[in-house]
Amino acid sequence: MEADRTPITGLVLDASIALVWFLPDEESSVADKALKRLDGAQATVPDLFWHEMRNVLLTSYRRKRLSLAEVWHSMHRLDQLSIITATTSDNAHILTLAERHGLTAYDSTYLALALETKLPLATLDKRLIDAATLENVPLLS
Length: 141
Hints:
Blueprint: E1 11-13, H1 15-22, H2 29-37, E2 43-46, H3 48-62, H4 68-80, E3 83-86, H5 91-101, H6 105-117, E4 121-122, H7 126-134
Helix pairs in contact: 1-2, 1-3, 3-4, 5-6
C-alpha cells in the first residue's frame, strides 16, 4: 500500500495571525503566508478565535486604530474565508498544556487543537511558538 503523499494544506489559525490582516499598522510574512494558504485550504479555529477577533477589533476601534465600518468589514471578510470552527472541550488536555508550558488557557486551546488535528499552527505568539516546538507541533513559518 502506497503512503498518502498529499501535502497538508490546512492549518490551525491563531487570532494573532488574523489580526495582522485587518490592522493597518501590523505586518507579518507569516500572516501573509497563512492568508495565501487559505486560498486553497481551510483553517481550523477554536470558538475562542471569534471572540478574540471581535474583542481586538472593537478595542482597535475604541483606540481609533480602525473605524467602526472597518470593524464590520473585517468580521465580514473573516466570515468569507474558509475557516472551520472546532469545538475544543477537553479541559484536561487544555489545562495540562497551559500548566506544562506556562500558557494561558486561551493559548493552550490553540495548541490542543493543533495537536488534535495534526495541523500546523499559525501564530505570532512567542510563548505559543515555544510550546508548540516542545510539543512537536509544526509551525507555519
